[in-house]
Sequence to fold (263 residues):
Amino acid sequence: MIAKPYVGITGFKTSDEVIKVQEQFKKNGFLNNHISYLPMFGFIVSNNRVTDITSEGHKTPALKNLAGLCELLEPNTLPMVHYYTPDNDQLFEELKKVFNINQLYERELCRSVQLNQLDGLAPIEQVEMLKEQFSDLEIVLQVPRKVLNENDSEQLASMLKPYDGFVSYVLIDPSGGEGKAIGLKHAIELLHALAQAMPITRLGVAGGLSADNVRHVISTIRKEFKEPFSFDIQALVRTVDKKGLAFNKTGKFVYESTIALTN
Fold:
C-alpha cells in the first residue's frame, strides 16, 4: 500500500516546540481525519550526534532526548529522523544505533527516516539493509540539489526506479534545508516522470516553502499533478536568530497548507 502523504515541519528540538506545533496542526483539522495528510515532525540528526548522544545543536536534539520528544506526539502523526552522514557505507550501521537508543523503533515511537546525503542518493544497498533490519521503517529518499542539477527528468526517473518498493517516499529537495526554492514547472515535470517510474512510492517536494508562499506553491502543483504529494518546510519557519521554531510562522504555514489542500 502506498504511504500516506504528509505535511512536514523539520527542526524540532524542545518539548515546547513539539507540543505547540501539534496543537496548531490539531486546530487546523489534522490528527482527526478531517485532513488526510499526516503532520510530519522532523528531528534533525547527524553522525556527530550518534558519536555523543548527549550533544545537541541549535536545530538538533540530543539523541538521548529523542524518545521523550516522540512520546509527546499523538496518533496520526509522523515523527521522522532526518539523517545525514558523510560516510555512505556506514549509513545502515549508524541508523541502527539511532533506532536502538531508548528502543526508539521497537517501542514504535519513531519508525520513519529521511536520508539526506548531500552529494548523491543514499546507496540502495544501505537502504535494503535498513528494510531488512527494520521491516516497518518508512524511508524518505531525498533527491538533493547536486543530483537534480546533473540529471534531466528522464535520467532521474531511471536512476530512482530501483528504489521503488524499498522506500516509502521520494522527496525532490534542491534546498537541503537552506530555503532555496524549486521551480514550479521543473517540480511538476519531475513529479510526472517519477510517478511513472515509481508507482508505489509517495512523492514529495521541498525547498523554498514559507508561510507566505505555501498556498500558492501547493495549489499550483495540485492543478497539474493530481496525485497527493508530501511537502516539508525547514529554514523559513525559524526565529530570526535561527535557534528555534517561530510559532507565528509555523501556525501560518499549517493554516495556509490547510487552505491549499482543501480548496
The chain has one domain: 6-262. The chain is about 40% helix and 15% strand.
